[in-house]
Structures are given as C-alpha cells and as structure tokens.
C-alpha cells in the first residue's frame, strides 16, 4: 500500500521562524516537483508570483527542539538542492521522524518594485557608508549637531536584540575591529537583506568632537 508522508517544511526567507514551520501531506510515489507544487499551494500568498519549479528544496532531519531562531539562516545545506524527478519514497525509506524539520524550501530572489515604505531601504542599498553617516547625523540631529558627519565612525555588527543585547554589545569589542570605509557601498556590506530583529550598525562619535559630553555612541 502506498504510504502518505507528513513532511514538516520551512521556507528560508527573511521571515523564517520556527513558528512558520508547516506540514505537507504527500504520497511516497510523488516526486520533488510535486512537493514543490504542494508547498506553493500551502504558501499561495507568499508564492503567488513565483513558479513552483523555481523553488529549491533540501531534505534535512533536525529536531524542532534543536532549532534556534537566530541560526535558522545557517540551515541551508552546502549540497545541491533536490532534483525535481527524485521520488520521495527514495528519500524516506522509513517514516519521517515526528517533531523534526524535514524540508527546507528557498524561493528565488525577486527584485520587487519599491513601495513608499521600502523606498528608503532601497535607496540606502545603492549609497555609500559616507551617505549613511549623513543620514545618521540627520536622524540624530540633536545629539550630533556638534560633529561633522564624516567624523562619525561606523562598524557593521550583527547582534540579536534580546534580553542579553546590552551585555553582548559591550563584549563585542567592535572598536578593536576595522571600521567601515566611507567609500564602501552598502550593497557590498549587506549582500543579503539585513536580518530582522538584529542590530546592524554601531555609530561612534569621537571624544574630541564633544568635549562637554564625552564620547557618544548610538546604534542602528
């Protein structure tokens, strides 16, 4: 008798979260191409402008309890994605273990037309660190009125904003690392979309620029 498989799936995109894992029921005689179609049906709103065959799939076996929200984007296997003609019964000779992640799906990168809310982010990605300094000075004008924008020092970081944020930031020792060059393109510094829920940029105002208040630090 043909088995029905229950596969727990996760779409690896900017909204990836353990709470977004979903289940697909599919026959063992179906192939990966059919699984792509079922994933597209399940996520029809997110994938309405994406063809099912454009999805890349990988089979994994990871206990849900071992997953970490901050490391979800490290889950993509280094191996090639599954071939569309591969039969699922060949991948799962035994029943997929319960409470495990079984399939990782990754959509293609789609360049969307900017809407007013995302226009600033799109413009930033085409600008340089020097332009970002100007934007930071403008955003924090009461604090940085005394300092020229090009004297601000910027570092790129990736710190999760949680209950340990301040402690982790203090221990990061970012000032010992090389600061961002004003001519660097932001698209080079952030080749992928910045991870949500994380600190991305630390801004430092040198002490000699603010003799009354000492050093000033801010974060983006």
TrEMBL record:
Transmembrane segments: none
Keyword Secreted attributed: yes
InterPro entries with a match to the protein in the record: Crinkler_N (IPR045379)
UniProt-annotated location(s): Host cell; Secreted
All residue ranges annotated as the Crinkler effector protein N-terminal domain in the record: 5-105, 126-203
Pfam families: Crinkler (PF20147)
UniProt key word Secreted: yes
Keywords on record: Secreted
Residue ranges of coiled coil: none
GO cellular component, one term: host cell
Highest taxon in the source lineage: Eukaryota
Principal location class: host cell
Protein name (database record): Crinkler effector protein N-terminal domain-containing protein
């Amino acid at each position: 008798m043909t088995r029905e498989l229950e596969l727990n799936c996760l779409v690896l995109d900017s909204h990836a979260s353990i709470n977004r894992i979903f289940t697909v029921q599919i026959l063992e005689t179906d192939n990966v191409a059919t699984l792509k179609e079922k994933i597209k049906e399940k996520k029809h709103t997110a994938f309405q402008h994406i063809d099912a065959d454009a999805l890349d799939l990988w089979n994994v076996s990871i206990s849900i309890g071992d997953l970490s929200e901050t490391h979800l984007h490290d889950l993509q296997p280094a191996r090639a994605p599954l071939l569309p003609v591969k039969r699922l019964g060949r991948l799962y000779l035994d029943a997929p273990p319960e409470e495990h992640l079984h399939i990782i799906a990754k959509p293609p990168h789609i360049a969307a037309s900017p809407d007013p809310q995302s226009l600033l982010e799109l413009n930033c990605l085409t600008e340089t660190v020097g332009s970002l300094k100007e934007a930071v000075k403008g955003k924090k004008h009461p604090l940085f009125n005394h300092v020229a924008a090009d004297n601000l020092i910027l570092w790129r970081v990736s710190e999760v904003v949680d209950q340990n944020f301040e402690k982790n930031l203090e221990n990061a020792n970012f000032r010992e690392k090389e600061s961002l060059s004003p001519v660097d393109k932001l698209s080079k510094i952030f080749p992928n979309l910045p991870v949500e829920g994380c600190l991305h940029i630390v801004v430092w105002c040198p002490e000699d620029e603010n003799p009354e208040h000492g050093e000033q630090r801010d974060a983006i």
